[in-house]
């Protein structure tokens, strides 16, 4: 369920504050362990890049979490952003009537 009054916490913030900082990892150490570039890690942390399924598999393996954890964080942010951008358009869509199809 998406929060109504604020944007969900992006996966990069969770990655930084709940994993990297407590473990005293550098972005380079994490990138090397995951087999990705430091730039990719940094862009995720800064919110300039989302977590892809590939990244989610790598993070889940390294940190002992689930792929769904990382993908869920990303989906929540993506849905919030999409709803914020297109919500008024969605409100104008009228559900199809069952009677019209019978």
Question: Any overview of this molecule?
Answer:
The chain has one domain (11-94): lambda repressor-like DNA-binding domains (434 Repressor (Amino-terminal Domain), Orthogonal Bundle). The chain has helices at residues 11-20, 27-34, 38-45, 53-63, 67-91, 98-101. The chain is elongated. The model has no long low-confidence stretch (mean pLDDT 95). Helix content is 65%, strand content 0%. Helix 1 (11-20) packs across helix 3 (38-45). It contains six helices and no strands. The protein is mainly α and 102 residues long.
What does this entry show, briefly?
The protein is mainly α and 102 residues long. It has a single domain, classed as Orthogonal Bundle (434 Repressor (Amino-terminal Domain)), CATH 1.10.260. The protein is 65% helix and 0% strand.
